[in-house]
Amino acid sequence: MRYSVRAVCDSRTMKDFLRLPCEIYRGDPTWVPSIASEVRRVLDSERNPYFVDASLELFICYAAARPLARTAVVINRVHWEKFSDLAAFFGFFESVNDDQAVQCLFGEVGRLARSRGATSLEGPFNPNHYSELGLQINRFGTSPAFFQAYNPAFYPELLESAGFRPVKILHTRRNEHIREYVRSRYRSECPVTASGGYTVRSFNMRDFDGELERIREVFNDAFASNWHFLPLTRGEYLFSAKFLNLVTLPELITIVEQKGEPVGVLECVLDINPLLRAWNGRIGPLKYLNFLRTRKRIRNLIIYAVGIKKAFQGTRVYKLLLDSACRLALNYDTLETTWMSNENLLALRAAGHLGLERDKEFAIYRRDL
């Protein structure tokens, strides 16, 4: 079979890029199709502020005019400067079970990355460190929660056949009986008691942009030394939060302040994936109205992000956010996390308090060029 790799450069190849997952996951009852218009928005380098400092190219491997494998490649020179690591990132990887197609695809991607000065390929990042990331490496066939990567069991072997090796393992955590756990362990309705100049409040929808800026400030400070973390610009955070009101509610975001200064944030979201699955990758007015009606029945809560400014880590802020998480959990059956790192001891400690057990694992892969 003859393979050829083409860059996505027109509407036809973009259509192939977007449709390939539908062919791969056809008949898979647990797969949640991405919203095509949202994928287009994220991969529009003229609209997405992340690409002010990064370049993006999309590739597809074909055989006999049939798309078999795809990926995006991102080069972010700000990452190179901060971490002294000349890695090009790949993401949005999908493929049929054909190792030659994947080898051909990454052969071309590797040549491009080398020509731009990169010395390695690393991913998947869709398309950066604060998006969906990693390749699922266990618990295949189980339904993904919101913001979790999902892929067939043969994907790790495909990447390894193309010269990639896992360099970092991330994981999620889960408590399927969170309400009962909190009630039995803490024996109260988990009141959040503020003192010492601290105040605890929920997200104020009437000051949406202002609240996002306060959260961004906390997260940029809290995560400054984290693996691969680059500070988010105001434009990037606004862009990524465009649909925040669909995945969460004001009371699911807790902000701790000291004398009016935001110092800690707990951001929870609803697991909307069961609702998105029914959309089949396309949004419409009737689907949207039904989504708003049925969203109230969701009983799976996800801890999306928790951040405490470095100057306030080890203070009462930790307890205030933990109390808030317990209070919120009393209204849900299941509590999950997005990806966590084994090095984040503060997050692991909080997970222990909430009875969250290690669940799915995701690997970041790297290949030297």
Number of domains: 2
- How helix-rich are the residues, as a percent range? 25-40%
Cα end-to-end separation: 26 Å
CATH superfamily heading of the largest domain: Gcn5-related N-acetyltransferase (GNAT)
Distinct helical segment count: 13
Q: What is the CATH C-level name of the largest domain?
A: Alpha Beta
CATH topology (level 3) name of the largest domain: Aminopeptidase
Helical/strand content category: alpha+beta
Mean pLDDT: 95
Report strand %: 25-35%
Order of helices and strands: EHHEEHEHEEEEHEHEHHHEEHHEHEEHE
CATH architecture of the largest domain: 3-Layer(aba) Sandwich
Radius of gyration: 21 Å
List the keywords.
369 residues, alpha+beta, Aminopeptidase, 2 domains, 14-stranded mixed sheet, 16 strands, 34% helix, globular
In words, what does this structure look like?
By secondary structure, the chain is of the alpha+beta class. It folds into 2 domains: 4-173, Gcn5-related N-acetyltransferase (GNAT) (Aminopeptidase, 3-Layer(aba) Sandwich), CATH 3.40.630; 175-360, Aminopeptidase, CATH 3.40.630.30. 34% of the residues lie in helices and 28% in strands. The strands form 2 sheets. Strands 1, 2, 3, 4, 5, 8, 9, 10, 11, 12, 13, 14, 15 and 16 form a 14-stranded mixed beta sheet that branches. The longest helix has 17 residues, at 99-115.
Give a short overview.
The chain has 2 domains: 4-173, Aminopeptidase (3-Layer(aba) Sandwich); 175-360, 3-Layer(aba) Sandwich (Aminopeptidase), CATH 3.40.630.30. It is built from 13 helices and 16 strands.
